[in-house]
Design goal:
- The structure is a single chain.
- It is globular and about 60 Å long.
- The protein is built from seven helices and eleven strands.
- A hairpin with a 7-residue loop joins β7 and β8.
- With 243 residues, the protein is α+β, with helices and mostly antiparallel strands.
Length: 243
């Protein structure tokens, strides 16, 4: 899913179907057909072609945008078993909850913005001519306990870069969950043509800065007094890693 790809569909109805599915995350085929006002035969044909071309797929009776992001992986530490996999639309509530809980620590402003955006749109994954958005999640007994999020605007001059946020619920830190999430996200970014990923954190988030530095990230710039947290001005630390 390189950001420089131009989405071509060959038929306006096909384009409308894709855009509707992409905008809503996971949709019922019959409801989609009715909402778009398409005849049953034509709709089935266009869906078949979109499936053939790898644009959408059908899972559990719903249509979804196809994003090739690999399989689920299992990890076991001394006293914790967790899985990391590509996120699904059904994970939206769990991801928003996890991000908001981490954001309550007032140390991860960018992640809080991500939660607001996906909660407002009610759509988790995006891939259109304006933006690409990908999530991986860490789960324990099918509950989301951590995430990594990659975002890239579809602008040619920025097509080689992506912004990343990663976080783990406090109760599950110290087991390598964050490291595995970050690794999975960077692996996906590299395989999809990105050359560099970046993120910004308040200077007070010393734990996040140390975590990224331990994974070979470097500080590219510091914007003084960029945040105001609890009545105090805090610097923004802008970090990045080359893939």
């Amino acid at each position: 899913m390189a950001t420089t790809d131009t989405l071509e569909f060959g038929h306006e109805d096909r384009k409308q179907i894709y855009e509707y599915v992409e905008r809503h995350g996971a949709v019922d085929p019959e409801e989609t057909r009715d909402r778009l006002g398409l005849d049953p035969g034509g709709f089935r044909h266009h869906v078949a072609i979109l499936k053939r071309d790898g644009r959408i797929d059908e899972e559990d009776g719903t249509l979804r945008v196809t994003i090739d992001a690999g399989a689920e992986e299992e990890y076991v530490s001394e006293d914790l078993e967790f899985h990391i996999r590509p996120a699904r639309q059904e994970d939206l509530t769990g991801i928003v909850g996890a991000i908001r809980q981490v954001a309550e620590e007032k140390t991860y402003i960018e992640a809080e913005s991500v939660a607001d955006e996906i909660d407002h749109e009610n759509t988790l994954l995006r891939h259109n001519e304006l933006e690409s958005r990908m999530f991986f999640v860490a789960t324990v007994e099918d509950d989301v306990v951590g995430w990594v999020h990659l975002y890239a605007p579809e602008l040619e001059k920025l097509s080689h870069t992506a912004e990343v946020t990663v976080g783990v619920l406090e109760e599950y830190r110290g087991h390598g969950v964050g490291s595995h999430l970050l690794s999975r996200g960077l692996e996906w970014a590299g395989s999809n043509g990105y050359e560099k990923v970046y993120q910004s954190v308040p200077s007070t988030n010393e734990e996040a800065i140390a975590f990224l530095e331990a994974h070979d990230w470097e500080t590219e710039a510091i914007r003084e007094d960029h945040y105001k947290l609890n009545g105090h001005y805090v610097d923004e630390v802008m970090m990045a890693v080359e893939l």
